[in-house]
């Protein structure tokens, strides 16, 4: 049975909802899944999983988009890992009001690329919270793509 580690950072609950939706789909697909809030996780948790997922919001105080504050140490530790042979996906929420829409997704994608893991699905950015059938379909496809990559 494949295993997945989902790590999320959520300020408003939007990204947590994304992570929980992905978790539900993975469980339905028979994947042994662990969901952890980023402040409770360590990057090396990914070493024990076949599928590595980060769901993170982008923070902005009017300037450029930034990683969530709670992601700083985690992000640096992630870049140092060797996750060769693993697959990953990155998703997150943002606000299209800002020029740097959901750039934390791009930042985590670059960090994962340094680990040797293989991105197995498109980056997924959702405006604010997942609300529409299209949003939930994208989240389901995100999870399905990751499972297909390890089978």
Please describe the structure with a list of short key phrases separated by commas or semicolons:
4 helices; alpha/beta; 151 residues; Rossmann fold; six-stranded parallel beta sheet
Structure description:
This protein is of the alpha/beta class. The chain has a single domain (3-150), classed as 3-Layer(aba) Sandwich (Rossmann fold). It is 36% helix and 22% strand. Strands 1, 2, 3, 4, 5 and 6 form a 6-stranded parallel beta sheet that branches. Helix 1 (14-28) packs across helix 4 and helix 2 packs parallel to helix 3. The protein is globular, with a radius of gyration of 14 Å. The model has no long low-confidence stretch (mean pLDDT 94).
Which of globular, elongated, flat, extended, rod-shaped describes the shape? globular
CATH superfamily: Flavodoxin domain
Arithmetic mean pLDDT: 94
Strand content: 15-25%
Which residue ranges are poorly predicted, with pLDDT under 50 across at least 5 consecutive positions? none
Number of domains: 1
Structural class: alpha/beta
Radius of gyration: 14 Å
- Please identify, by name, the CATH architecture: 3-Layer(aba) Sandwich
| First and last CA, distance | 9 Å
